[in-house]
Amino acid sequence: MTLRRLNWLELVGGAMVLSLVFVAILAPLIAPYDPTRAVAATFGDPGAPSIRFPLGTDQLGRDVLSRIIFGARISLVVGVAAMALTMAIGVTIGLGSGFFGGAVDLILMRFTDVMLSLPFLLLAMALVAVLRPSLLSVLLVIGVVSWTQVARVVRAEAMSMTARDFVLAARTLGAPAPRLIARHVLPNLVPIIVVMAMLGTSGTLLLEAALSFLGLGVPPPAPSWGRMVAEGTMYFRTAPWLAISPGLAIFYAVLGFNLLGYGVLGRRAR
Amino acid sequence: MLTYLARRIVFGAAVMVGTTLITFLIAFVIPADPAVTMAGAKADPQTLSAIRHQLGLDQPLYIQYAHYLDRAAHGDLGRSYVRRESVSALIANRFPATAILALAAMALSLILGIAMGSVAAAYRGRAADNTLLVVSLALVSMPVFWLGTMLLIAGGLYLRAFPLGGFSGPLSLVLPTLTLALGSAGYYSRILHTNLTDAMDQDYIRTARSKGLSSARAMLTHAMANAMLPLVTIAGIDLASMFSGVVLTETVFNWPGIGRLAYEAVFNLDIPLIMGIVLFSALLIVAANIAVDILYAWLDPRIRLERSR
Lengths: 270, 309
What we know:
The complex is a heterodimer of chains A (270) and B (309).
Chain A: H1 8-25, H2 27-30, H3 64-100, H4 102-116, H5 120-131, H6 135-145, H7 148-162, H8 165-172, H9 177-213, H10 225-233, H11 241-269
Chain B: H1 2-29, H2 34-39, H3 45-55, H4 61-73, H5 87-122, H6 127-141, H7 144-158, H8 174-200, H9 203-210, H10 215-237, H11 239-253, H12 258-268, H13 271-299, H14 301-308
């Protein structure tokens, strides 16, 4: 696929996501300061943006820009890992439900309905609070609460695939169920799975940020964008810039994945 | 129609039993001992076991679950460990503030979403369509808590037009409603856009156009009727994510609703309160979905006839 054949949504979204990945990987080279160390003289007050500190410093004298750059790591790691878990659960349940139908479908879909009627953020909050916040618990919980939509879409696609003639032909030739799924149904679901993974990452990023904002994210001193916004709100009268820039970073990351996902979705629709 | 209705209600009840099971299981995965939460870390073993006995925590899990179901069916969701008040009363107390906020946000997001979606569909493939696509994706991509904070800084701190949080009259409703509504508005706008452009490709639109109807008229009178229906369902399902937005919005604006109550409950590991709020919101979501299904069947004869057969 050459660059010229990409649509503008894919180009812009792809560039945004790539830039994010580069910033996360190259964080130690790009960041001007250590994100966890006090680098500005402070007396418990945030520092205003200046030439030395373009986005200011927080109440502990840490450089906000460096923290945002390192924060990309947490966001991407949690966002992508939680998305992978979401897809693994959602595709398994959706595929099982759509391929086997009958009682399997009934049980799995009623379970999905129950999960859909639970407020997912509240569920995630309760689970993280119980498991104690850590990188692992946060990404596990996000994966566990956000697979429902994936399962529903994959189920519908798997159902229509399973009813196609080529699957029937393979079945008639005696292919066992695992082979039918692996060789015939699943490969045809890959395009929709890719789209759902991109749109799903924007969802997991937002959920990570929300948990982080509520104090249930990856614990300090690791810099996470959601918690930076929360800390910034405590100083919103005297230092409004503290809450603005980390929020823009979340917005940028989520928008990048959304643009990319919609771009690929638009290609499929045509 | 009646059988359809009955089936929906039975189904809703089954889903509710499922949610009680899940909330109950989560509560017992929770390692924090409720007796310790109530009596404090320094309580002596006798007091702790007395509290456990009083709460029924020394009985087998399935008996505890049966008791829990029985009480929940009678509207008794237990007592908050921390506040020592009835969970039902706490929820009832906080519900009006949340209901006002959620309804206002739902109305605003539908109005904005329908306006943006139909304008985008009318200018399909042109600059206005692309601009509205980016605008709606941007709205969907904004973290609720950050949008709320920004609105608070802009509207409360600099313009001084709105209060800086709390629930005190109509003016205090403006910023939280915007915060909660804008994301959903972007989402609804995309859905309506897709539905409208699909509907405009249908044969009945070609018929209407060949009868001499203008494109705008064909869209507003014929296509809109079909494109709006799925939006009704989605708005009903969206209540679940609306509730997630409510937790964040109420936290930012110090809004005295269920969302803030939930936030406090999670921090205190106040298990009955958390379980009560999760169950209550699940009940709202299930009820809303049944209401939406009935509305849908009433609006669309095809569904009514097909399902009752």
